[in-house]
Amino acid sequence: GKWYWWWDNTGLGATNDLNGHGTHVAGTVFGDGNSDQRLMGMEPAVGRDGNARVFIGRYLDASGNATGDPGWLYSAFANSPGGRKPAVVNNSWSADTQGSQWSGTEVIARQIDGFVHATDQTYCYAAGNDASGGTSGGVGSPGSAKNVLTVGSVDVFPDANGRSGSRSGFS
Fold first, then answer.
1. What are the backbone angles phi and psi of residue 53, rounded to the nearest 5°?
2. Which pTM was predicted?
3. Assign residue 11 a region: left if phi > 0, alpha if psi is -120 to 50, beta otherwise?
4. For the ranges 49-53, 93-97, 100-104, 114-118, the one whose mean pLDDT is highest
5. What's residue 155's pLDDT?
6. Are strands 88-91 and 149-151 parallel, antiparallel or unpaired?
């Protein structure tokens, strides 16, 4: 079994994944590949003992809407049970980027920069899910914060115009 701690802002249950996104992200990170070695995650040993725990924080509801204050989750991750906080906090969400130009000076971006500095943790965010067809307003906030790692995606397969390498409609 894996060692888990979880927090929930939604009231739906941190492990009750109603749309499959959290399960997909978790499998990409720490799937053990037992059913198929091709599906092994990037860190399959994470969660195998009390020294490498998995921390799950739910911030989005089943429709992908933000619920509550993410600062509550960040505080929970920084002050985890037994004093063992996660080194990396993955957030597979971001603000809508269509028509927005985020600069990293937004309130939430500054809040995240403060958490990163105060807790000595690495925070990762999705770039945004609005680049379908290679067009986008840029990176969504809080992925625009200066002290975070932001992850995006490009399509391997050609788009409708025959181009590959265009920004994906997901990150």
1. -80, 160
2. 0.73
3. left
4. 114-118
5. 67
6. unpaired
Give the C-alpha separation, 77 to 57, whole Å.
8
Q: Do residues 124 and 90 touch, judged by C-beta distance below 8 A?
A: yes
Whether residue 126 contacts residue 151, with contact meaning beta carbons closer than 8 Å, is answered with yes
**Rounded CA gap, 32 and 41, in Å?**
6
Chain mean position to CA 53: 17
DSSP percent split of the chain into helix, strand, coil, nearest 5? 25, 15, 60
Tokens representing 85 are 């906080």
Cross-sheet strand order for the sheet of 122-126: 88-91, 122-126, 149-151
| C-alpha–C-alpha distance, residues 125 and 86, integer Å | 15
The set of residues, in sequence order, having a beta carbon less than 8 Å from that of 116 and lying 6+ positions away, is 122, 123, 145, 147, 148
Residue 149 — very low, low, confident or very high, per pLDDT cuts 50/70/90? confident
Tokens of 48: 């195998």
Give the total residue count for the chain: 171
158 preceded by cis ω (within 30°)? no
Q: Is the dihedral of CA 36, 125, 66, 95 positive or negative?
A: negative
Beta strands in 82-147 (DSSP E): 88-91, 122-126
